[in-house]
Fold:
Amino acid sequence: MTGNHKSTSITRRHALAVSGGTVAAGGLALTGYQSAFADTTTQTAGSTSSTATSTGAACMQLMSSVTEGPYYLDGALVRKDITEGKSGVPLTLSLTVVDATDGCTPVKGAAVEIWHCDAWGYYSGYTTASPGGSVPAESEEGDSADDNTYLRGYQIANAHGVVKFETIFPGWYIPRTCHIHVKVHTGGQKEDGTYEGGKVNYTGQLFFDDDTAEANFALEPYAKHTGTYTKLADDMVYDGGGASSGLLTLKAVHKKDPSKGYKGSLTLSIDPDAENTGAGSGGGGTPPSDAPTGTA
Structure:
């Protein structure tokens, strides 16, 4: 079965560079999470089971920033739905931004930016970079997506520090596990359809448990990409810390039918006064062929 997630059409704008003034990262953290859906949940590393907890869960600084990788592009659009017609298992992603230096108060107005590969492992802007293994060319998918913008976007945090994205479950590429890249910006503003100015406070990656990922990769269109998938324990960025290391809390829309999609959530605890270069830690390995120099 195939979970197709279609978006309304998006007009492509000229890429505008986000302000580049940064200094070495420090004091930034990705913390334990709380659900941004109807109920708040907790999760152990490698598990998708959830139990109800108090909404006043303690905020702790738990993780430093990691590499942004070689596939970052300036000028992503501010929008909730980033799919642009890309096929895949639907994923509603809810992230909550809080200030770790001020009692974990919500960071209203924070701009959260995400980007990730499509179901076959291709990134927009780099559609000729092979994901490795055996996979059709990105152009063979036949979707209506803009090859320079799909699966990239910003959302601005509401009064509760919450942003939500409509996307698809990412695919994979050698040598990485399934993941989503994320940056948190503050101090800028929405302008000409994107987010301009301010500074980057946090650069991280979000991860998925192996069982859920592999169940999705058996579905179309993911199943057309074959080869050796890197599990969490073997990934060079994920450090095994569960939610504290970016492992998302996942809730299946329909437990017996993964093609119906998932809701994923996490809380990001940042220092709004800190700046981040995106260099981060965790390595990332050699990018797929034809990709720009850097880590993945």
Observations:
- The longest strand covers residues 194-207.
- Confidence is low (pLDDT under 50) at residues 1-58, 284-296.
